[in-house]
Amino acid sequence: MLAPIALLGCNEPSVAPAPAPVPETTRAPLVEKPPELVFNKLDWDDAWLTNPGPTATDAVLVDGVRHPIGFHELAKAGDLGFGTIHDLSGQPMEERCNEQDFDALFEARGRYWLTSHFECTPGAIYLSEIEKREDGTLEMANTRNVDFSAMGGVYNPCAGQVTPWGTHLASEEYEPDAREEPTSLEEHGWDYLSWTSMKKAAKPGVPLNPYHYGWVPEVAVMTADGDTLAVKHKAMGRFSHEIAYVLPDERTVYLSDDGRGAGFFMFVADQPAQLASGHLYAAQFHQESEQAGGRGTIGWIDLGAASDSEVDAWITGGVTFADLFDRQAPSGTSCPNGYRFVDQDGLQECLSLKAPSERAPDPARMASRLETRRYAGYMGATTEFEKGEGITHDPATGAVYISFANIGGRMQAEEGRLSAMDHVRLPANPCGAVWVGYTDKGQMDAGGAPIASDHVIGRFQSKLAGSPIEEDAHGNTCLPGGPANPDNLTFLPGYDILMVAEDTKRHAVASLWAVETRRSTLRRVMVAPRHAEITGIHWIPDLGGRGYLTVAVQHPWRVESLTGEEAVLPDGVTDEHKKSITGYLGPFPKLTVAP
Fold first, then answer.
1. Parallel, antiparallel, or unpaired for β 161-162 and 138-145?
2. Which of 29, 173, 337, 533 is paired with 223 by a 20 to 30 Å CA distance?
3. Cα–Cα distance between 229 and 97 in angstroms, integer?
4. What 3-state class would DSSP assign to 506?
5. 41 has which bridge partners?
6. Does some domain include residue 493?
7. In what order do the strands lie in the sheet with 347-353?
8. Of 548, 572, 556, 577, which Cα lies nearest the Cα of 72?
9. Rounded CA gap, 390 and 568, in Å?
10. Is residue 255 one of the residues assigned to a domain?
11. Do you find a cis peptide bond into 164, omega within 30 degrees of 0?
C-alpha cells in the first residue's frame, strides 16, 4: 500500500482547499506519450472473395490525428513497358513478367525514384521516375529496365531494401545448382523450367554459367536522368537470397535463404556502406524449447573473408563444382571415411573438399562463396530452416525479425537422425511464423574469435505464429484473424509498427497485417484479390515531407493451375485484373521520429 504524501494536522480542515488552476498551456502529462500510429482495421467481408482488385483501410490515426489514406496504384505489369523482360544481351523480349515483387521509393540526385523487382528467370529490376503532387499522391512518370547484361542478366530477384546510404539492394533467389544441369521437368521441376528460360534468353554461342547467379545486386542512381550503376556482390555468398538486410551500422547484413533445407547467414563488411568485401558467417541453431513456437540460441560458424573481385576472378578462371568437392551418395546419413554428410536444399550428399589445384588453389575459401549453403552444412551450420523470407530491424531494441513461411520439413524432429545433426525440432505449423533475434555486442564465433559487429544475434525465438484450423466455409485452413505464411516484413521505427505480408493459399485472400509491437496487437489493413500474394512492402518515413508504404499485388486471379469452378474467373473479373499491381498505401504525414 502506498503511504500518504502528507498527514493532516489535528486542527487542519478535513478537506484541503482546491489548488489554483494551472493554465492549460503549461499542463503536461504525467508520462510522455510515445509516438503512435493506429490503422483502421478491416473486418471480414464476403465481398473480398469476388472483388476484382485489392481492398485497403481508409484511415490511420497518427498521434491521435486522423489521416485519410488508401491504396494507390502506380502501374500494372505491362504499363509503359513496365516488367518487359530483356535477354542476356540486354535486348527487350516479347515476354512480360507478371511476378512483381519488391518495390522501394527513395530520393536520389534531387528526384524521386521507385525500384521494382520482377521475379522471373530471366528477371528484371526496373527504375521508375516518380512525380509527387501537392496532395502527396504519386504518379509514375517513366520507367526503364536496369541493365544487367554485363553480368549475365538478373535471376529471379525477390525482396530488397533501400540501404542506409540510399542505394537499392536486391536479391537473386533459387540459385541454379552448379553440380549438374537440370535435364527434365519430371526430375528437376522449377529448376528445369527456370534454366530452360535462361538458355532461351542467352547470347548466341555463349554458354550459361550457374555461378553468375545467386548473388546480391546493388543499384545506385548516378545522375538526375536516371543513369544507374549496377553490381552483383559476391562477397556475401551464393544461395537462394530472399533478402539482404543492412543494419544501421552500415556493416552488419543479415541474409535469409528461401528454400527447403536452408540456412541463415550474417555478413560483416570491412568498411561501412561498402559491401564488396567482408566476413561471412552461417548460423548454428541450438534449440532450447519447442514451446510457444520454439526458442534457442545462435552460434555463428566462420565461413571466412572474401571480396567481390576475388570471387569474380574465380568464376572468370573457370572454376567448377568438381574443382571444389568430391561427392558420393550417402547410405542413410552415413558417409565413407573422409566425407561429411550434408543435407541442404532437398539434397543429401557425402562431400569432401578437393585438394588444392591450379584452378582452385584454396577450395575451402572458394566453396564458402560459390557453394555457400553446401559449405555451411559441411562446416556444421544449420541447413534445416524452411522458407526463410523477409527480414527487418527495430533500431530502438536491436531486434531482428525474420519470417518463416512454413514451420515444417526439416524444421521438425527427424526420426532416426542423430541429435547433433538435427538442430531444429519443432512441432509442424503450416501457417508459418515470424521469429525475432536479439542482438548484442562482444559476441564470439563458434571458434572463439571475436565478431567485428555490435549487432550479432545470440538468441532466437518465435514471436508471431499462424494457427492451423480445420477448413472453414471460406476455404481458410489458418485462423483468418492472424497471419498465414508470412513473407515480406518491414518495420517503422519510432512507431514500433511491424508490417507482415502474406504469400499464402491457406487464407481465402492474402492479407497485409500491422503489428503494434508495444501492445502486441494485430490489425488487418489490406487484402489482395484471390489467388494473389501481397509483396513489396517497404516503409518510406519521409519522401518530400510525406510517408509511404510500398505494396505490390502479385499475380492476382492466377487460376491457370486450378481445376473445377475455382479455375473460372468470377463475373466482372477480366484478364486486365490478372496483371500484377505496383502501388503504395498512404500518403501518411511525415513519419520520422526524433531519437
1. unpaired
2. 173
3. 23
4. coil
5. none
6. no
7. 325-328, 347-353, 340-344
8. 548
9. 32
10. yes
11. no
Residue type present at position 431? C
Structural domain of 193: 37-394+406-418+529-589
Task: Encode 413-423: b = buried (16+ Cβ within 10 Å), e = exposed.
Answer: ebeebeeeebb
**Residues 461 and 429: beta-carbon distance below 8 Å:** no
CA 182, 184, 187, 189 torsion-angle sign: positive
The answer to whether residues 73 and 531 touch, using CB atoms and an 8 Å cutoff, is no
Sort strands 55-56 and 521-527 into parallel, antiparallel or unpaired: antiparallel
- Please check the confidence at residue 4 and state whether its pLDDT lies above 80: no
**CA angle, residues 58, 59, 63, in degrees to nearest 5:** 170
Q: What is the pLDDT of residues 141-176, one digit of tens each?
A: 999 999 999 999 999 999 999 999 999 999 999 999
* pLDDT, tens digit, 9 for 90 and up, residues 88-110: 999 999 999 999 999 999 999 99
- DSSP string across 444-455: B-TTSPBPS-S-
Q: Which helix (H) or strand (E) segment is 264 a member of? A: strand 264-271
**Residue whose C-alpha is closest to residue 110's, from 588, 545, 584, 544:** 544
Q: List the beta bridge partners of residue 178.
A: none
Q: Is the pTM of this model over 0.70?
A: yes
**Angle in degrees, CA 223, 224, 226, rounded to 5:** 70
Q: Which pLDDT belongs to residue 30?
A: 52
Give, in order, the Cα–Cα distances in Å from 11 to each of 7, 317, 472, 503: 12, 99, 72, 74
Phi, psi of 575 (to 5 degrees): -60, -30
- pLDDT (0 to 100) of residue 569: 85
Q: Is residue 31 very low, low, confident or very high in pLDDT (cuts 50, 70, 90)?
A: low
Q: Considering its fold, how many domains does the chain have in total?
A: 1
d(CA 369, CA 362): 12
Answer yes or no: is 559 within a domain.
yes
Q: Report the amino acid identity of residue 355.
A: A
Rounded distance between C-alpha atoms, residue 410 and residue 496, angstroms: 32
In a domain, 54, yes or no: yes
CA distances from 36 to 381, 519, 590 (A): 40, 11, 13
SS3 295: strand
